[in-house]
Amino acid sequence: MSVPVEEAIAALSTFSLEDDQPDLQGLTVLLSTERCATSSPIEYGDVSAYRLSLGEDTKSINQLNTLIQEGKEMASVLYTYRSCVKALPQLPDSMKHKQADLYLETYQVLDLEMSRLREIQQWQASAVSKLAADLQRFSRPERLINGPTITHFWSILKLLDVLVQLDHLKNAKASIPNDFSWYKRTFTQVSIQWQDIDSMREELDNLQIFLSTRWVILMNLHAEMFRTNAIEDILQVLVAFCVESLELEFALLFPERHTLLRVLPVLVVLSTSSEKDSESLYKRVKINRLISIFKNNPVIPAFSDLHLSPASILKELSMYFPNFSSQTRLLALQPHMNFLLGRYRNILLDDVVYFLNLITFQRHYLIVNHIEAIRAEHDDFSVRFASAVNQILLLRSMDNADVEWSREVKGIMYDMVVEGFQILSRWTGRVWDQCAWKFSRPCKDVPSEMQENVTTFLDYEKVVRWNYSEDERKALLDIISYIKSIGSMIQRCDTLIADALWETIHVEVQDFVQDKLDIMLHTTFRKKKDLSRILSDMRTLSADWMANTNKPEVELLSLPNETEETKRSTFYPRPVAPTAAQKTWRLFASNSSGISVDDLKQLETFFYKLSFFLHILDFTATIGTLTDLSFLWFREFYLENSRVIQFPVECSLPWMLVDHVIMSQDASLVESILMPLDIYNDSAQHALTIFKQRFLYDEIEAEADLCFDQLVFKMSENIFANYKSWAARNLLDQSFLSAVDNGDNLFVQPMRFTEIYKLRRVKLLGRTIDLRRLITQRMNKLFRENIDILFDHFENQDLCAIVELQQLLSILELSHRLLSRDLNLDSFTLMLNEMQENLSLVSYSSRLSSQIWTEMHNDFLPNFILCNTTQRFVRSSRGTSHSNQKSDAPFVKSYFYCGSEELNKAHRSLSGLYSEFFGIPHMSAIVKLLGPRSLPWLIRALLDHISNKITAIVPKVNGLQEALPKSIGLLPFDGGISGCQKIIHDQLAWGSKSELKMDVLHGLKEIGSVLYWMGLLDIVLREADTVQFMQTAPWLGLIPGSDEQIKQAQDARDSPLIHLFKTATSAIKESKKNTDASYFVTMSKQAEAADLLYRNSMNSGNVLEYSLAFTSAALDKHYNKLSANPKTGFMDITTSKDFYRIFSGLQFVMAWGGCCIMYLLGQQLHFELFDFSYQFLNVAEVESVTISQQTPSERSKIPNSIQAHEHLLEAMRKARRLNNHVFSMLRARCPLEDKIACAIKQSGAPLHRVKFANTISAFETLP
């Protein structure tokens, strides 16, 4: 069934094609060859249909416009001309015989370039001839009244401006005469064999004269103009027109104002060919007005990197026009004000005035001095323009709106567009003027940090790179943003307001032509036939009688006695644009024409309004011109002078502005970061459509690609650093922030990156780029790089740095979580596993776990000792040979740690508190970082290390056993402490076994360290299990019982979680509503699975118990070597082969490792009975009692050996207390009568309290 067209259209109108992408760029103009799409195709072709007296003038205007367009193309050729001589090859001495061939090839190449210069020479001759002919035609007496129109004036001035620019370019481009000299040299070499070359030589000489003579075009124009008639009058009229237009600001667009400023000094020189002419000029235009204009505009933009100075033009032309040299007041203007600020010695009064003028002009030209007013103007216009657009929308939504209100709304919209164009013209003109000022005032003081690296600087660096301060760059960026935003705002309303603009223009024209002009024809111009004929032709050409609802023109002319009220025509406004002839035929009236003041004022007001119509109707082209900032990139003149192929990107003004936004960290500029890229769009458009040079576009494209890559790179770093700083500050304790002195330095300035994340269609050189996707890719890369750097940082430190690693990874994870709100980043766990090389399903080790094990094996276990009181490991002051030297960590940027240097210091000071020991915080960090996947692997590696150490020390223990006497009895009490010490010293004759002794000591220390490390791990895991139990127990219905076992809270069969979903499912099934219960059935089954999963995880194991069981199994393999069974079945008090005898002779700090081995071997009681230190203490106690029972005289006769051995006795007491503590802990965790171990599954989940027989084979099967 087909859908009606009306319904389909109505359905399409409901779709929204808008998205949430903010408008952070200028006009999204694709690179097109047709930018002025609204220009009239008929031009002045409709004039001939009316058979009026305007045919000659329209023909002349068309010819002038053609010459202007051709002249602009010629100027583009000259400006973009680059020397061909630089690319010419140089023949080596071995190929000198082919010099003639090289000359011929060089001539053929240069001849193509010289042909363009010949075309310019020929064109200027025709342009000079045409311009002189028009000026001579208007200087005739019969054209005093019927003078040129303002349109004709503008065409004459624009053509003269093109000639001035061509002359200036020809004088400035040094590559042109250089190439011509090579061309002439090669022509001399290759023309030897030619015939009839006189005409070619003559043409070559003429071209040489044209290229080498300064201001030759103006001199040709002067000679051509004064060939027959005296045209000073028309020149003076042009001067007066320029002065009035500049003073009254008649020029809507800034290029028109620049045109007036460039041609005015030339017109003054041409019109003052004698004293009589100068006197007549100064009667028409006061010389003070000219001086004021020249003084207030000391620098005029000519091309992107070329400028003109009116004073310089006047002084230089005075040498070529002798009659002008008498104009002393004009020549007294100082062309350049390169006044050194530090020159205060021998200063003259003129220099003081000079210096004050320089400051005044600097305030005028620099945008930073006007940016506040510009910002206020931008905000005010944006509000008023939006209000006017809303009024237009309201008007279009109404069917029968009031005519007067409708005309008022459309008139306001027209006024707003005109005001917008004036604002854009004023702002863009300021940017032009500031650039010209900067080019005329290069920087003299290069930053000192750059002088250390580079000895020579390019001239372009002095006028651009070092010539803009930070405030000036910010102001320039702001005004560029304002220009682009206002231009975009007006352009987006093109189709909405087009009818209103055309209708308003139609009303203005028809109201004047049909009413006001008709009254003038019947009153003021009734007896002035010449003026009346001109106005009648203008009325005939411009009137729209089809819109008139009253009377045709014939009836109006036949009723001479009608009053003003009866003559007024009533017409309906129509959105019809006038043709080029209708909107440009404007009478130039002067005070000598006999026109009344009121009529003259009405004519001037109407002509002033008509001056805007051309630009309003050519809407898109006008906005394109006013927002074109391509001049900020082009630098052909400086490229030629610097003799380089292209300047580095650091010297490019667009990149300087982008880099300023990135480096300044100014939140208000972030959303303007893409505005400078529009300069590349403008310059690329200009290179293709105006200059028509592919090589320029290629250079722009290469630099734009590089800058955009750098933009994404640096902006991503800024985003990453900002979020890292944000996360690092959030993880700092608030009490620390309130107590620290420099808390303000830790404040993180919020940046407005949110709008940047929404940019999916960035327009750059006709391409559409997804900036959001590029930033996301860069963020993923930065996160992976950051994880890798943190691991490298940890690998260059000891195991105590694990807390710092955990803190830094927590900051990084929080940064990832914050950034994931706006960007679709990869999972942080995925990236962490990827950088740890732990993606395989069957891999339980990781980069971090391997590094932790390496650190424990190489550094922690050999070099750290236990402080049992604080439960911490600290580094021993006496390192061993196992300690490895760490390499210096490479320098990395601050944002890879905590985001900023201040936050880095704060977190470094906090992590430094944990850098000198290893304890519970470090173990918690290891558990969090490794997780349940890699932690079992590390536990297994440490247990294997215990097994290997036991295997390694058993032979060494046997070696120490061999050095002991075959029989060692109890220490006698009658010998006292001194006698016991001597007996121990004689029995422990290990002098030759010192290496074995040290190896056994180190081995026992490492075994004890591992076992205590397992105890710390068990404490941390218990805390985690407690937290998990508190979270899941209410849902599973579990509570701790009185016997320390977990039991159900109720006698119910199911847990509360399962009961909840089963009840909901039953209620849904029993309800009468047609509700699908399958979803609840599925959720009920998922609840049963979750109940089973979490209930099994409640049975967590004990790592220390498992480690002790594993150690016991490992000792059982060597039981016969470490413990001898008594032959008689009773305890042998004289044996010296058991392990406890060896440990008794070792140092006392080995309590953990030695006590564990003795306990697991069942030698605790033996040790407590026969340990040397224990016996020594018993003897000391007996001797102390004996001494206490003696009389004082007897005590004085016998030396007190207890006081002599007090330090030794105190050490023995500490060792006994420590041993008792260890034995009590071992009895609690691993009773000998009930060998209970805790197994660990392959998945990492523990099996709680699994009983194993105390056999080697049983413990070998443990995972």
Automatic annotation (TrEMBL):
All copies of domain CYRIA/CYRIB Rac1 binding, residue ranges: 61-268
Gene Ontology molecular function: small GTPase binding
GO CC, any one term: cytoplasm
Top-level lineage group: Eukaryota
Annotated GO biological process: regulation of actin filament polymerization
Protein name: CYRIA/CYRIB Rac1 binding domain-containing protein
Lineage of the organism: Eukaryota, Viridiplantae, Streptophyta, Embryophyta, Tracheophyta
